[in-house]
Specification:
Layout: H1 2-19, H2 24-37, H3 43-58, H4 60-69, E1 78-79, E2 82-83, H5 106-121, H6 125-142, H7 146-163, H8 187-194, H9 214-239, H10 250-272, H11 277-305, H12 323-329, E3 336-340, H13 342-346, E4 359-362, E5 365-366, E6 372-373, H14 378-388, E7 392-395, H15 412-415, E8 422-428, E9 431-436
Parallel strand pairs: 3-4, 3-7
Antiparallel strand pairs: 1-2, 5-6, 7-9, 8-9
Helix pairs in contact: 1-2, 1-3, 2-3, 2-7, 6-7, 6-8, 7-8, 10-11
Length: 461
């Protein structure tokens, strides 16, 4: 049974590392812990039961990158003096500074890091961050067994690695505007530290002559539930969760909690009390019917409002001029939609339609080591539109990652002027949706065939 538990944990670690490169540090640390903690003579077997499922869960994209780009992690362009194969990126995003870069910059901590942590973890964010770190330290140095000590070391390694993770403080020099959204990189090591917080992980329990038997278990329960109650009280006081009681979705939320948490808990309790299998089977069947009865109309309601962008400014796509295009795509299905310009490419999800039946194609050309570059000329662009056999085309500007409200003009819309094979359906800012109504003429570009001389590299920097 332990082997399958190790395998399941290995799959989870592999999925994390395969989803984001930022999960590699914790995955490597956990792999080392599994090998060291395995009994002597069984370490090779433990490594196999861990590592092979981890490969199955996370190796696909790294192997794909190795085959296509010659580098399993194409973002890493060199190892010291050794240059590694890597694709030239179509457009760089925000500068990839890390938190350590601003370790002594009090202005950045005051204006970016502290507000970002407050937004993520509430007014008592120091308790969350430093509490997890202190718990990991105590587990490492005062843990009562090797497993707890190693888990403390894994959590600390993950927290330290986060400080040096590229993009953890993304943004122009002195303006790490990407810090808040990239706090998600530190969630795994934070959780690893937080689960080590219960005091009985590192403090010795009461001596047997002081408290023993059932009273000892009662003492542990009182201590654990007391800590939980204190944390809940802090949460209630500092974060005002009572605002959820005024939310329009509160009725659905209550029904969801009852169906997804309350009913299963009652079923488990009934099973522990010796309820017959027939009654439990009927109850589980009723639960499944309730899930379908509640879930299906909610799914339909979600799809009806998906990408509608009809609410307040906060509910719309900020500063990208894609709101009208998204609303247009809601009424399109089973169509081939081409995209040009990195703004549309970066936020392409809205063009798949509410039922995800549209085929969305970003127009570009292949480059060395798996690169996908902008099409450099009008004639080549019109040829690519013809080859893609599109029903619609969306042209957009280059995305300014640092200042999205100031996009950089992309030439594709200009390359379509005077072309009878396309007809504009709607415009918003620099975004245009075109109807393809015939073959485009690559030879009709004239003076517009001047090549795209430069793709902006981190525009606005």
């Amino acid at each position: 049974m332990e082997r399958w538990a190790v395998a399941a944990a290995g799959v989870a670690a592999g999925l994390a590392a395969g989803t984001r490169v930022t999960g590699l540090s914790m995955a490597v640390a956990l792999t080392l812990a599994v090998v060291v903690l395995a009994p002597r003579g069984r370490r090779v077997a433990a490594f196999g039961w861990w590592f092979l499922p981890a490969l199955a869960g996370g190796a696909f994209w790294y192997l794909r990158n190795l085959v296509v780009a010659g580098n399993p992690i194409p973002e890493v362009k060199s190892l010291g003096p050794i240059s590694l194969p890597h694709p030239d990126r179509l457009q760089q995003g925000r500068p990839d500074f890390d938190i350590a870069h601003y370790a002594t910059d009090t202005g950045v901590w005051r204006h970016y890091f502290a507000p970002g942590l407050h937004e993520a973890f509430g007014v008592l964010w120091p308790l969350v961050v430093f509490g997890a770190a202190v718990a990991a330290l105590l587990a490492l140095f005062r843990g009562r067994d090797r497993i707890v000590r190693w888990m403390g070391a894994v959590a600390l390694f993950g927290l330290a690695a986060y400080l040096f993770t590229p993009l953890s403080a993304a943004g122009a020099e002195g303006e790490p505007v990407g810090f808040g959204i990239n706090i998600r990189y530190v969630i795994p090591p934070l959780l690893a530290g937080i689960v080590l917080m219960p005091l009985d992980r590192w403090f010795d329990p009461p001596e047997p002559h002081q408290i023993s038997g059932p009273p000892a278990r009662k003492f542990d329960a009182v201590r654990s539930y007391g800590l939980l109650a204190a944390l809940v009280l802090v949460f209630l006081v500092t974060n005002r969760p009572d605002q959820a009681l005024h939310d329009q979705a509160r009725v659905f939320a209550l029904a969801f909690v009852i169906v997804a948490v309350g009913v299963p808990a009652l079923l488990l309790y009934a099973r522990s009390r010796g309820t017959s299998a027939a009654v439990l089977t009927a109850a589980v069947s009723g639960l499944l019917i309730a899930v379908v009865a509640i879930g299906y109309p909610m799914q339909r309601h979600y799809l009806e409002g998906r990408f509608a962008n009809t609410g307040s400014a906060e509910e719309q796509i900020p500063s990208m001029d894609l709101d009208k295009a998204y609303r247009w795509a809601r009424g399109v299905d089973h169509a081939r939609v081409g995209l040009a310009g990195t703004t549309a490419g970066f936020a392409n999800y809205g063009f798949y339609g509410t039922d995800l039946t549209n085929r969305v194609i970003y127009l570009g050309e292949d480059g060395p080591h798996g690169a996908y570059n902008a099409i450099p000329t009008c004639a080549a662009f019109r040829t690519a539109v013809n080859a893609a056999d599109l029903d619609y085309l969306v042209t957009a500007p280059f995305l300014n990652f640092i200042h999205p409200g100031n996009p950089i003009v992309s030439p594709e819309a200009r390359w379509l002027r005077g072309e009878t094979g396309v007809r504009p359906l709607l415009r918003e800012g620099q975004v245009t949706v075109w109807k393809i109504q015939g073959q485009l003429d690559p030879g009709g570009c004239g003076s517009r065939n001047a090549p795209l001389r430069q793709v902006p590299d981190t525009p606005g920097n």
